What we know:
Elements: H1 33-43
Amino acid sequence: MRCSADTEIRSLYIDPAASPSAQGGCRVLVVSPLLRELIRAFGALPAEYDEYDE
């Protein structure tokens, strides 16, 4: 994979059951402009989980 200098990368973790053909491992996905913007918006939200699993 090649990226330009202004590339922005987001990680999205999807339940493996949602894509049985993925068979584990990382994948690069092509997404629609709407889904791209939704992922960007969700990425700006504060994380609401217990980092220390307490």
